[in-house]
Amino acid sequence: MAREIINVTVKTKTTDVIKIETDVLAVGYYSDGTKFNKLSNALDRELGGAISKLAELGDFEGKCGSTAVVYGNGDIGANRVLLIGLGERKKLTVNCLRKATSIAANKAVKLKAASLAVALHQGAGRKISLEAAGQAIAEGVYFGSYRYDEFVTDEKDSRLNSLDAVIVDSDSLAVKQLAKGVKDGNIIGQAQSYARTIANRPGNVINPPTLASEARKIAKAEDTLSCKVFDEKELIKRKAGGILAVGSGSASQARLIILKYTPAKRVSGKTPVVALVGKAVTFDSGGISIKPSANMQEMKFDKSGGVAVLGAMKAIAALKPAATVYGIIPAAENMPDGSSYRPGDIITTLSGKTVEIHNTDAEGRMILCDAIHYATTEKCGVIVDIATLTGACVVALGKHMAGLMGNDDKLIKQLEKASEISGEKVWHLPSGDEYLDEMKSDIADLKNTGSRWGGAITAGAFLGSFAGDAKWAHIDMAGMDMFNDKKFGVSGSGGFGVRLLTAFVMNVAMKGRKR
């Protein structure tokens, strides 16, 4: 039987932070001195100057992300005080709080701590609202405590099954504001952890039909969420040639998964219908244009865009924004077989456009183009697709941010704002007709690869040509599908995109109104 992921709870509590009984108390420490943080000063006094001694010795300087552990002496309630470096106080951001909390939760799991008290918001100043801090801290607890070990049967030195976290403050009004943010942070954190688990599962567990089953489970749990799935027969009937071609070599038949969130209350006519479209190639061998064998096991993560949409729809249904949202996930497994599509084939897509295949490993755009066109048939005024699409984007941006491109400046700015809120970074890349010209074929409407230059952008231009009159944006998250922060010592999916897409939809629903 597979192990459950760590069960996490995040709450708030009004209490004397010095006296709270907990396995670990996480406290922020600024590189420009503890004088800006009354709590760390008070703890230092109770601990007989242990914190200031660390600073004097140069063992802890408060650099962003650094940590130090001081053990309790009986004069405080915590067994351990975990100091988290926050850098310079004037440069503190919400995302820094989220990262700091992630480090604290990660450390708590390593220490096999059952309880974690977090007081990182104290001393943050007025530029960060307590509500925003509460949400970020809750999200950070989920992110940092996550472990993917559901198929590990060896119980030796295993981690605990749960972590109870509480955000603490002695001011009841402050706790009330923190609690508002924690409510949303719990929803988003749980959705991101869920997405990480689905993304981490291998191809023999998650294939197009089982991914569709996951979508149905999510929809069944929420009254505002519906789900329909187009199987191979329906895809043939609708002539969705892109999805069918990519899945043609696999024993697991392709699917088009459509989740729809319908708000309970009436939506303003000015609010557009939004489509989130995510690539889900549940395993990508490259097909006939087969990939090198080295690290091919990581190709289970080629479903990460679709899984990000799945997680975002789970969060959106619980957060209940005033906007109609589609989550459209084309799912296929790209395998080499006698029935596989081939280089040189000409595929007729759902839109009716034809595509000449130059490389079967440029498969993501082939399933996405059908899904994007489907979104236009549902009258979606805004379409945002997300995909592990091109190695070229990783070459351009590395593994620190995703590429962003589109046909509408306002939409790009909205996604950049969502990136700032969520802490999931994007970088705006150019887009234009000159890039689409490179994707024109001599014997079909388009070809599925361009030249070696600007490959991320030409791929985006290809997708944009299927968006019709909708405002469209493309997020190439190829470098972001796996979590690579060495400080954590945790490998696998980071669930990138769940927070970003959720923040975007919530902003669209609020029409840009600030919290």
Helix % is: 25-40%
Specify the CATH class of the largest domain.
Alpha Beta
Structural class: alpha/beta
Can you give the mean pLDDT? 94
CATH topology-level fold name of the largest domain:
Aminopeptidase
Tell me the strand percentage band. Answer: 15-25%
Given the structure, what is the number of helices?
Answer: 15
Largest sheet: 9 strands, mixed
Low-confidence segments, ≥5 residues, pLDDT <50? Answer: none
Radius of gyration (CA) equals 24 Å
The total count of strands amounts to 18
End-to-end distance, in Å? 44 Å
| Total separate domains | 2
What is the CATH H-level superfamily of the largest domain? Zn peptidases
- Silhouette: elongated
Q: Which architecture name of the largest domain does CATH use?
A: 3-Layer(aba) Sandwich
Question: What's the arrangement of secondary structure elements?
Answer:
Elements: E1 7-14, E2 22-29, H1 38-46, H2 50-57, E3 67-71, E4 78-85, H3 94-110, E5 115-118, H4 130-145, E6 162-169, H5 172-200, H6 208-220, E7 225-230, H7 232-238, H8 241-247, E8 255-261, E9 274-278, E10 280-284, H9 304-319, E11 325-334, E12 346-348, E13 354-356, H10 364-377, E14 382-387, H11 391-397, E15 402-406, H12 409-422, E16 426-428, H13 433-437, E17 446-447, H14 455-464, E18 471-476, H15 498-510
Question: Would you mind describing this structure in some detail?
Answer:
Helix content is 36%, strand content 20%. The protein is of the alpha/beta class and 515 residues long. It has 2 domains: 7-170, Leucine Aminopeptidase, subunit E, domain 1 (3-Layer(aba) Sandwich), CATH 3.40.220.10; 198-510, Aminopeptidase. Strand 12 (346-348) and strand 13 (354-356) form a beta hairpin. Helix 5 (172-200) runs antiparallel to helix 9. The mean pLDDT is 94.
